[in-house]
Amino acid sequence: MAVVEATSELLRFATAGSVDDGKSTLIGRLLFDSKQVLADQMAHVEEVSERRGDGYVNLALLTDGLRAEREQGITIDVAYRYFQTPKRKFIIADTPGHEQYTRNMVTGASTADLSLKLVDARTGVVEQSKRHAYIASLLRLPHVVVCVNKMDLVDWDEGVFDRIVADFTDFAAPLDIEELTFIPISALAGDNVVDRSTRMPWYQGPSLLDHLEQVQIVRDLDHADARFPVQWVIQPSAARAPDYRGYAGRVAGGALRPGDDVVVLPSGQRTRVAGIDSYDGALENAFAPMSVTLRLEDDIDVSRGDMICTAVDPPDAVRDLTADVCWMTNAPLKPGGRYAVKHTTRTARAVVEDVVQKTDVHTLEPGPAEELTLNDIGRVRLRTSTPLVADSYARNRTTGSFILIDETTNDTVGAGMVVETGG
User: Does an H or E element contain 32, and which?
Assistant: First the structure.
């Protein structure tokens, strides 16, 4: 196996598709053809394929790790895989496509930079394809790649591909998707997955791997509004520098430099950045998504959960939020429900004031609702016990997202995306 040099750029992408569209096979093919599968892994896949009577080496087994999945031949959990090429590192979230596992799909896609949708060339755009596109739009994933799979089963017909492109494009037109790309593939045979296919000369675009290596993601980060949730306060210590006080965390948006005027929220105290430190030493600037330690000019009260922002046009610290929530547990979300809310590095308590509407995952139309049940996606109004420094999710995916926690069981029961702040 060729030695792959380490690269610094990371692309996270999530796959989704209907049952039997070939998601797991595609990921297996991507790993195998890019030489990311170890010999003992491949031997195990060959053994299991033979025992199951598949009649071929079933590369889907590289990702379908749960016994229940292998027995049913479907993906029911989120399987994460890592690989790298000389150009980029990748983290794959192979998410389930069935409606009853919507919560798993939202979880897998929530941290992704790109969504990879599979469409079966024989069946075209179906309800689940539409639901997956809606979720990608809801999560503000800027890049969506639609792989029209199983082109070998439609004789590599360009007309079939063109009809699917037209149907999907028409449906996605009103959705908030910045870049939509279509690639005809055969995951089983490997056409246009890693290498360009010679059986579809009418397609002049890149292979899937070529596209994943080239797609630009740096500009997708919010570099306009500086947001720094404080994760840890580094106190002065005789073992370290006795006068050193720093605030460690990960930049959630914008850029910070020494000398910048900043405000600490929710207290509203103002100061300046004295310096920015990293493991390798002092930095001239820090930007999303770097993990750094800030030093401030003034000795002010800053705690875990506070947000350091640029003093120009800072966000408001609010207790009222309107958000789209994906509900992840059997017990329904109802008005009056009380939960812990985890937002960046801050935890508060929240009460559900109202369930505004629920989205029909079949028609994608909002409708009135009194509650949200398992796998529902709907809009709710929350009031928190302490102020949260939140942006809208459209403005910043990090400071605009949160999770709801059942304090009795400590289970995560909901994932939220802020629509607007304030009453």
Answer: helix 23-33
Could you tell me the residue range of the domain that residue 244 belongs to? Answer: 227-310
> Do the beta carbons of residue 234 and residue 293 sit within 8 Å?
yes
In whole angstroms, give the CA distance from residue 190 to residue 110.
Answer: 28
**Average pLDDT of every residue of the chain:** 85
Domain count, the chain: 3
Confidence of residue 77 (pLDDT cuts 50, 70, 90): low
Give the C-alpha separation, 137 to 393, whole Å.
12
Alpha-carbon span 373 to 359, nearest angstrom: 12
Sign of CA dihedral 136, 138, 143, 144: positive
Answer whether residue 267 is part of any domain.
yes
Report the distance separating Cα 423 and Cα 417, nearest Å.
16
> Is residue 160 located within the same domain as residue 191?
yes
**Tell me: the pLDDT tens digits for 386-420?**
999 999 998 899 999 999 999 999 999 999 999 99
The answer to whether position 200 is within a domain reads yes
Residue 281 identity (one-letter amino acid): G
As a whole number of angstroms, the distance between CA 44 and CA 385 comes to 53
- Taking only the tens place, the pLDDT of each residue in 358-382 is 988 767 788 999 999 988 899 999 9
Would residue 4 count as lying in a domain? no
* Shared-domain flag, residues 85 and 165: yes
- Residue after which a domain boundary falls, among 310, 337, 371: 310
Tell me how far apart the alpha carbons of residues 113 and 92 are, in angstroms, rounded to a whole number: 11
Q: CA-to-CA distance for 144 and 15, rounded, in angstroms?
A: 10
If residue 167 lies in a helix (H) or strand (E), which one and from where to where?
helix 158-172
What is the DSSP code (8-state) at residue 100? G
The string of DSSP codes covering 188-234 is TTTBTTTB--SS-TT--S--HHHHHHH---GGGS--SS-EEEEEEEE
Would you give the distance in Å from CA 3 to the centre of its chain?
Answer: 29
Task: Examine residue 3 and state whether it is found in any structural domain, yes or no.
Answer: no
Give me the amino acid identity at 110: S
Give the separation between CA 135 and CA 251, rounded to whole angstroms: 26
